[in-house]
Design goal:
Length: about 290
């Protein structure tokens, strides 16, 4: 089992894969990406990831990508070649390589890179039992956070500050005190009224794939749900906070800025939705958590 890469459909060991020095993803961050979980050798929520990639490509005028069927075939071939049962598929699409100049180049084919690496999803089940810590930070990102661009410097700086503070994830807050999302997660709150809330879709947040799946699961379970922004002050009074992401996929947050969230232990809503989410993982992939 080994990490593998595909560059425009050509396979390499990951340490030997290369893109051009003047690739626009490298020079300008003129590129998009997706991170997709695969478990038991099967992609989870693949269609939703592909939809988001196509949406992002349309938003930035990135044309010429392979068809969805070709992208899917390459992804599955890469997973087979890696011989990894569980892991993360990383997909990055740039506008291609050309002489460095800001305007879009003409007649240049996009660059499509994929990598497959091992990931231990069982660790997340252990973390669900204890919960994780959040650190509130100013949201200093650009104004199109709904596009999954590789321009991630603000998130990189936030993740480093979080690491130094001994926390797990950032909780981004706007100048007017509104919570948007995490550095690589969507955020959820259960308020004192028992209503589950998450920021509505807008340019301020990424349309998270796990966010969408958890919304479906929560509504299917009959839980009261609102897509409504909440403030840092409200988050500090919350009964529960939790995160969703591809690598999460759902993690309760039990501390915020050093103070306990609610009882300081994972709450019942997060526990129920985590169980339902793992059930959906099992339904799509056949994966079972190791015991």
């Amino acid at each position: 089992m080994s990490a593998r890469a595909l560059v425009n459909g050509h396979a390499f060991p990951i340490g030997k894969a290369r893109v051009a020095v003047e690739d626009r993803g490298l020079q300008f961050g003129d590129s998009l990406y997706e991170v997709v979980a695969f478990l038991n050798g099967r992609l989870f929520d693949w269609d939703k990831h592909l939809w988001r990639l196509e949406r992002g490509a349309a938003a930035i005028g990135l044309a010429g990508l392979p068809s969805p069927a070709v992208i899917a075939a390459r992804a599955r071939r890469l997973i087979r070649q890696s011989r990894l049962p569980d892991g993360l598929l990383y997909l990055q699409a740039s506008r291609g390589s050309s002489r460095r100049d800001h305007p879009f180049p003409h007649g240049v084919a996009p660059t499509l890179v994929m990598t497959a690496r091992r990931f231990d999803f069982a660790q997340r089940i252990r973390q669900q039992e204890t919960g994780v810590a959040l650190l509130s930070l100013p949201d200093q990102r650009w104004k199109r956070c709904d596009i999954k661009s590789t321009n991630l410097l603000a998130a990189v700086l936030a993740k480093e500050e979080v690491r130094r503070a001994g926390a797990f994830e950032a909780l981004f807050v706007t100048e007017d005190g509104v919570v948007t999302e995490g550095a690589s997660t969507n955020l959820w709150m259960v308020g004192p009224d028992g209503v589950l809330r998450t920021h509505p879709l807008s340019a301020a947040i990424l349309p998270g794939v796990s966010r969408d799946t958890v919304l479906e699961l929560a509504r299917g379970a009959g839980l009261p749900v609102e897509e409504r922004a909440f403030t840092l002050a409200e988050a500090r009074r919350a009964q529960e906070l939790f995160l969703t992401s591809t690598t999460g996929p759902l993690l309760p947050a039990t501390r915020l800025d050093g103070a306990p969230v609610g009882s300081g232990t994972p709450g019942p809503v997060a526990r129920e939705l985590a169980a339902r989410l793992w059930g959906e993982v099992s339904r799509q992939t056949g994966w079972r958590a190791p015991r």
